[in-house]
Structure formats: C-alpha cells, structure tokens
Amino acid sequence: MRQANTGTKLLLVTAMSSGLLLVGCGGDDGKDGADGKSADVTAQLAVTTSGFSIPEDAILVAPEATDGDDITEALSVALFDLPDDALVVLPKGRFVVTESIVVNSASGLTLTGYGINETALDFSASNGDDAFRFQGGNGISVRDFGVYEAPKNGIKATNVNGIHMTFTATVWEGDLEASNGAYGLYPLKSQNVLLENNYAFGSADAGIYVGQSENIVVRNNTAKQNVAGIEIENSTMADVYNNIAVGNSGGILVFDLPGLDKAYGGNVRVFNNQAYSNNAENVGAGVVGMVPPGTGALVLATSDVEIYNNRITDNATTAVAITSYLLVDDDLASYPANYGATMGNGWSPTLKNVYLHNNTIARNGANPQGALLQPVIDGYSSNLNSKGAPQTFPAFLYDGIGELLSNAGELAGFNALVGIDAQADGVNYDPYGVGDQVCANSNINGNPAPDYDAVNTGLVYPDDPTDVTLVDGAGNPLPHLLIDQMVNNTYLNCVQPRLAPAVVNFRNNIYGCSGDDLAEAACAL
Fold it and tell me: Mean per-residue pLDDT for 302-310?
C-alpha cells in the first residue's frame, strides 16, 4: 500500500548524526543516493542518521505510529507483493512486532528506518522465530534500524543474490544467555553479500554470520558479547576487515562443518580487525558451543585462510587457534560412515594453507579453557614442551593432528572419500605436501618487558611421526604441546601465497578491496 505524501507529518530531517552505535569508514554510506538510489534532493522527505536520502514517493509504514505501537499489520502489508525497486520506510521510534516478517523474491528492495538508534523494532512478544526473513530475490538492501529480542534470528537472508545490510543492529539486551536468539545478521546460501557498519550484541550463537555463501565482504562492523562475534562458515571468497570483535566467547571464526549443502569453503581473508577481550562464558550449543572462551580467532577445518594485520589482545585462552575437526570428533574409524557423503563433496576434517602474518599480539593466554582445546590445555599443563621457552599458553596454537596422521599414513583412505570434482578444485587433503602448510611469520609481539618472551607459538602434535615420543596404551599419540617463540619461530616458519580479494557485485556496483575500497588503507596491506 503506497501512502500519500506525509510531509506535514514527518519533519524534514537534515544530516542527523546523533548517537550511532558504531561509526564505520567504508562503503557507499554517507553519500546521497546510496546503493544506487539517487534521490532528487528537491523531492527529499528525510535523511537517515547515516546520510541515506528518503524520497517523498517512498512507501511509508505506519507513519503516524507512536512509541510502543504494534506495527505488525502495517509492516506485513507494506512488504507484501512489492513492485521492483521499492523503497519501504519504517517509522521513527520504538515499536512492537508480533510475528516474523517474511519477504519472498523481492527485487531491488530497500528497507530502511531513520537510523540505527532512531528506529527500533521489538520482537520480544513475537510468535515467530526470525524477526525478518528474506527468501530468494536479488539486490536487497536493509539499513538504518535495530531489531531487538528476536525469538530465534534477527535478520536472515536465504538464497539471495545481492544482500546488503548496513547500519542495522541486532540486540538481545541484558546478559549473554543460552535463551537468547541464535544469529543476529544471518545471510545463508547467498551470493554477493555486503555487511557493513552494523552492530550485533547478545547472540547465543553468532552475532554476524555468513554461511554457505560466495563473494562476501564483512567490514566496519562491531560484534559484542555474542558467543561468536563474526563467523564465516562453509563459504568462499570472503574478506573480513576493519571490524571490532570484543567481549564475545570467540572473536572471529572461520569454520567448515560437515553435512551441509555447500560442503566446504576457502579463500577467506581476515585482516585489519581488532579482536580483544573475547572472554565471555560460552552458552552456545553444537560445535560453536565448543569454542574456547577467551579466543581471539579460530580456524576450524577450513583451508586457504589468510589472517593478517589484525590486533589481537587480552584474550584469556589464545590469540589464534588453528584446529582440525579431529578435536571435535576423534573417532577416526567412524568418519567414513558418519561423514563419507560430505567428504565425497570435498569436506575434510583436516586443513591446509593457513597463513598468519603481520598480526600484533599482546596479553593473551592468561587463563586457557574450553572443551575444544582441553587436550591441548592438558598438554600445556603437563610441562612437556620441548623448546624450554617460557611456559605461557601459546598466542598461536596449531593442533597439527591432521598433518601428523596424514604423514603417518593414517589418512590414506580419506582420499577415496573425496569426490573427483573436489579433487579437480584442488581439495586434496592427503598427503600434506610442500605448499600445503600452516605458516606463521612476521607477526609483532606487542607485550612490553618483562613479558615480551611470553608470546609463543604452539604445536600440539609434531608433523613428523618419528618425533612422537608420547603415546597411550594403544600406541596413539598424546598431545604434549611443543612451544616456540612467536618471533623467529621454527615450527610454523614458512610462507604461503597471498589470497585473492573478495569481490561483491551489488546492483551493478563493485564493493570491497577491488571496488569501492580500492584506496582503503587496509586493502593495501
């Protein structure tokens, strides 16, 4: 339903700048006519706090609503049977929504409020699960409003080609609880994903999550007090940069999990982020519930990952953990039966080609904990490191178990499970060879004296089977943590080729380090 001109009821807003939850530097925001909708300023109804222009012919949702009103029906009507390139405007204030808002196959839709703090939608009484769900469609922009207390997920998009979320907030107020919703911003099985200038707080799974998707840019966001701050899962061609991850259980996660339609991801770059004080209790479920509290960044079973020029500080367990799925499920004999189908599509429990360089690391590892790393922590506690370095839990931690088993011939049968197409794509995890390594070099020790020597690199299992000196009664290797200095280290001292930048094509504009951020300092690193 297209509303009549309501200029007399909505004051003309000019360059409102009050109280953004976060300020980002990137992208097209702050420019008149962002996202390709160049409004004629003579026909301008309002400007959001981010500088996005709202034209007078926009579709207005409940423009006369006042704080506390239920706008569910008006919102559902406005988003039903939309014309292409519609611009739908939520009212200014805080309002109640009592059911999921589902949008099917929209094309060129822009859904905007008046600002990340100016428009707030409260779903605490909703009978649905997701607050917003966009199913199918293309060129969808969601911006300038906050979603509060969604029963399950905040803003979800599935099977969308071109999804842009900017200056949005997903919030579960109060403490981080298992009863909070799972995901905040949640693009899934989508292409050309652009998430920027958003704020995610209180998710019991991931605040900002992109899963089973391709061509992704996640930049200039803040993720605070979630289980996982930012997570890239089973996704390819992703750039994660200029973000802040603070107060989560784990700051930035890159996962490949079994059993998903998109079997594996890769070419994920994580750079120029700040990941600090991610020490919240983990209240999550499933694999994310195993993320050790106090982890700055975690790579789990994903190959072709580059982590560089980040500042990772004050995380109680470790700055960066690089782990195989064998820490989640160590029953190697069960893999053909349990994961054979997904391995046939290219997934592997092990990983390769992970490169850590030029990160600044300080004050991590003071209180290591967490189920996923418990064998590692036990090895650390056993005081059996072979280098004689200071006994501080490593800032960089590589489990090495997949590499050890591969080099020992224990994974010889895994190749038969990896599909022909996957092998053609270079997903051949066994055996490890030259260039298939986990490397860490040129990282910066940010600890001041006298704690400078306490920034270490740790390898839990040696890559050479002849180095295995500790075994259990069945002859299986036991973790015992080889510790080396992070600077001038020997265990992980190698170099990997740099990964290609991700490219997002949204409404025929190119975003990311090969597009609108070409001159951005982070993209030159």
Answer: 97
How many residues in total does the chain contain?
A: 525
Using an 8 Å Cβ cutoff, are 367 and 373 in contact?
Answer: no
Residue 298, beta-bridge partner list: 253, 321
Indicate the pLDDT class of residue 422, thresholds 50, 70 and 90.
very low
**Strand, coil or helix: what is 417?**
helix
Contacts of 305 (CB under 8 A, 6+ apart): 254, 266, 268, 269, 270, 299, 351, 353, 354, 355, 499
Q: Which residues pair with 306 in a beta bridge?
A: 269, 355
Q: Is the pLDDT of residue 87 over 80?
A: yes
Query: How far, in Å, CA of 381 to CA of 47, rounded?
Result: 58
SS3 409: coil
**Cβ(506)–Cβ(192) below 8 Å:** yes
Assess contact for 310 and 272: CB atoms under 8 A: yes
pLDDT score of 270 more than 90: yes
- The span from the CA of 441 to the CA of 493, in Å, is 6
Residue range 345-371, pLDDT digits in tens: 889 898 889 999 999 999 998 889 988
Mean pLDDT of the chain: 85
Distance CA 140, CA 106 (A): 7
The DSSP-derived string for 286-344 is TTGGGSPTTEEEEEES--SEEEES-EEE--SSEEEEEE-GGGT---GGGHHHHHHHHHH
